[in-house]
Amino acid sequence: MVSSPAALALSDPVIVSFITSHARVADLPSLCLITKSFHSSATRRLYHSLVLANSSAALLACETLARTPALATHVRGLVLGPGPPRMWQALQPALEALPRLDALAIDARGMRLSWVLPLAPSFRLRDLRLCFPLEAQAAAFVRTQTALRTLLVAHTTAEVADPDPIPEPDTMDLPFLSTVECPLRLAHALVRSPLTHLQVLGDSGADARATGRDAHLLRLIPRLACAHKTLRSLSLYDVPEALTVDVVALAAQHCPQLRYLGVLPLPAGPRTAVHEALIRFEALLMLEFELGTWMPLPTGALQRILVTELHTFCPSLRTVSLWLSSRRFVWRHNTDTDVWEGQVDQRGLSGWKSV
Fold first, then answer.
1. Mind listing the pLDDT tens digit for each residue in 112-151?
2. What is the largest CA-CA distance in the chain?
3. Most buried residue, 21, 130, 235, 304, by most Cβ within 10 Å?
4. In Å, how far are 86, 115, 148, 237, 274 from 60, measured between CA atoms?
5. Which segment of 50-64, 185-199, 224-238 scores lowest on mean pLDDT?
6. What are 343's strand-pairing partners?
7. Residue 235: CB atoms within 10 Å
8. Are 197 and 230 in contact (CB under 8 A)?
9. What's the rounded Cα separation, in Å, for the pair 149 and 287?
């Protein structure tokens, strides 16, 4: 029997790969039913990146991966949302079965899940995002991920008290880590990495003075001098207004190459000390200040005066963002007209990753 041109085409791996790479993911199972030629290529794409927001689907996927090495080897990215204890129990053996995983995101706020992370993983992640407390076992896991480029640990000490000590700062040797969003104490452990963007999360609801956070924050900035050749962006949350001058001065002294600094509460009173610190920055392009405590809140005209004032002492500035409560006003310098032009940012997102 002579095969049809279509059948001959579907026997060509190049054509099959082209079709599966351009088909919708939802259509891939149907393609596999048409001919076995699609099975291998479609399976690779189906399992390449798993986003498992549904806990039932996540449970089934984890159980399947744990007992099917041939499928587990295709998984490069894994994203899981909140789920019941049974799902997390299934995740533990699944992670141990994923040799090529390079991106992992787990959202389990309010739960202690360090135990699901393998102590001797076979994979090396490039991107890790954890929304649960970084206890000792999780910190040990992070230390094994020497290929990390991006790290997010989105929890604060106020959410879940953590009795387990984090390892000493000099034990975190992550030679490729560049973008980090994490609590203050973990930031101390990562200062030897070639960081380009660092956002230090606040202790929401915690008494920072009682926990000594203010002192730890001021000690962090000089330690960032280790990354002085690479650090472009420094974003700090929950900085008391009384520390703003110290933070800006320390940043100017130890990280004068910064392109971005924020989000700091700007005093409504005399700002001479802030101006003196701004003069020392060499390449600062963007500042973000919080003005939520100003009474009355500054209008557009007063905002332009303030932005022009900051630009006078830091001529390299091109963007200044002013936060009034949850509203973000972005002012950009038009170099052709030498005029600052403002607008409301509807997204309400910090600009720390934009430089």
1. 999 999 999 999 999 999 999 888 899 999 999 999 999 9
2. 91
3. 130
4. 11, 20, 28, 39, 56
5. 224-238
6. 330
7. 20
8. no
9. 25
DSSP 175-225: TT--EEEEEHHHHHHTTTS--SEEEEEP-TTS-HHHHTHHHHHHHHHHHGG
- pLDDT value at 346 more than 90: no
Instruction: Give, in order, the Cα–Cα distances in Å from 337 to each of 225, 312, 332, 333, 340.
Output: 37, 16, 12, 9, 9
Q: Do you know the residue count of the chain?
A: 355
Helices (H), the chain: 5-10, 13-22, 28-34, 39-48, 55-67, 69-72, 85-96, 136-144, 184-189, 208-211, 213-223, 244-254, 272-278, 300-313
Please name the residues in contact with 241: beta carbons below 8 A apart, sequence gap of 6 or more: 265, 266, 267, 293
Q: Is 197 exposed, middle or buried (0-12, 13-18, 19+ CB in 10 A)?
A: buried
Cα–Cα distance measured from residue 339 to residue 355, given in angstroms and rounded to the nearest whole number: 21
- Please answer whether residues 283 and 291 qualify as being in contact, where contact means their C-beta atoms are separated by less than 8 angstroms: no
Q: How sure is the predictor about 196, in pLDDT bands with cuts at 50, 70 and 90?
A: very high
